[in-house]
Specification:
By secondary structure, this protein is an alpha/beta fold. The chain has helices at 16-25, 45-56, 69-83, 95-107, 124-130, 148-154, 177-190, 242-254, 261-270, 276-293, 317-328, 353-369; strands spanning 32-33, 89-93, 113-118, 134-139, 159-165, 193-197, 219-223, 236-240, 307-308, 330-331, 333-334, 345-348.
């Protein structure tokens, strides 16, 4: 009876892949957890103190929809210094995910097509579907590099948006300058909105290039969750042409209302905190993981974020992950959560060294002993 109550748009959401992993995980007493996509360090002390101080000082009411000047103005100055675009405006969002929701709401009409690179961040296809859009997947296997000719052939008169994520979740791969420039120039040439999800920008173990450097109409989405471990604080931002930002602010007013005010005062402090030691630490953790898997698993070198996306040594990724969880208490995520394929699995090395070592040992054992 109750199925008649649910809107048709909810069919675009399928949490079964990740839910299955966590349902299995809930039965484990001492899991080896390499599944969580959030930093394993805490929010820097001075940022925590700034939030506490803001709360004590009564900064607990609604924030301005576009963000408090203490944070928004600081972000605008930095963005202006970096890009020097005549038309680039920033506003503060309720998390990076909130910014993504506002972007697709503001830009997509039913029937519009969105180019998404496969593998992709799990939210992209459902959000596009929610707006009545259609995802056009551009395959990046086996090395997860962008083939600009594939993108060019995927563009049709209905293409409205390209969703781009570098450093990427789930692969950890970072697009190089040539790939990024080619994508930015193609989007400009075809008048397609390029949305650049840069949430892992600071966790980059080499040069980082934003497509906004080559295409002034690029909409950039970023935030504080990964760099400063503020995942639960729901603080992000978006910057791009005023025409787009104005519509996103209007939508925020009628949906999220605003980003949490105390978090914004803390975010302004966070911008001045040097996180390079944590970035270096994750590079070391990446190398620890890859050393542990060397010779037994096929994996592309992650250039950023804190993920690796190895090829499954036997069976489907769903079968391999189920065995890892049930037999070895190792939590990893099957690739079909992030992809049209079920051939790889995601490891998050945002974990302590001992967990990484234990997880690597299990994967070596599973790869060499087979099913």
């Amino acid at each position: 009876m109750s199925h008649q109550w649910i809107a048709e748009r909810m069919a675009h959401f399928d949490s079964s892949g990740i839910r299955r992993v966590f349902d299995l995980a809930s039965q484990l007493k001492q899991p080896i957890n390499l599944s969580i996509g959030q930093p394993d360090f805490d929010v820097p002390p001075q940022v925590r103190e700034a939030a506490i101080e803001a709360i004590r000082e009564g900064k607990n009411g609604y924030a301005l929809t576009q963000g408090m000047p203490v944070l928004r103005d600081k972000l605008q100055r930095r963005i202006d210094a970096r890009y020097a675009h005549a038309d680039r405006r920033v506003f503060v969002t309720s998390g990076t995910s909130g910014a993504l929701v506002l972007a697709v709401m503001a830009l997509l009409d039913p029937g519009d097509e969105v180019i998404v690179f496969d593998p992709f961040f799990v939210m992209y296809p459902p959000l596009v579907g929610l707006m009545g859009g259609r995802c056009v997947l551009v395959d990046t296997y086996p090395d997860f590099r962008i083939d600009i000719d594939r993108v060019r052939h995927a563009i049709t008169p209905r293409t409205k948006m390209i969703l781009f994520n570098s450093p990427a979740n789930p692969t950890g791969v970072v697009a190089n300058e040539a790939e990024t420039r080619a994508l930015a120039e193609l989007a400009a040439e075809r008048d397609v909105v390029l949305v650049s999800d840069e949430i892992y920008r600071d966790f980059c173990h080499g040069p980082f290039t934003s497509p906004a450097e080559f295409n002034e109409a690029t909409l950039v989405i970023d935030g504080f969750s990964k760099t400063y471990a503020m995942t639960g604080w729901r603080l992000g931002y978006a910057h791009g042409p005023n025409e787009i930002i104005e519509e996103m602010i209007k939508l925020q007013q009628y949906t999220f209302v605003c980003a949490p005010q105390p978090a914004q005062w803390a975010g302004a402090v966070a911008l001045d905190v040097d996180m390079q030691q944590h970035v270096a630490d994750y590079r070391r953790k990446r190398d620890l993981l890859l050393t542990g898997l060397d010779g037994v698993l096929e994996v592309e070198m992650p250039g950023g974020a804190f993920y690796a996306f190895p090829k499954t040594p036997w069976g489907t990724a769903t079968e391999f992950v189920a065995r890892a969880i049930e037999k070895h208490q190792l939590l990893i995520i099957p690739g079909n959560v992030f992809s049209s394929r079920d051939t790889h699995f995601r490891i998050s090395y945002a974990a302590d060294d001992e967990t990484i070592r234990k997880g690597s040992a299990v994967l070596r054992k599973m790869a060499t002993e087979g099913a």
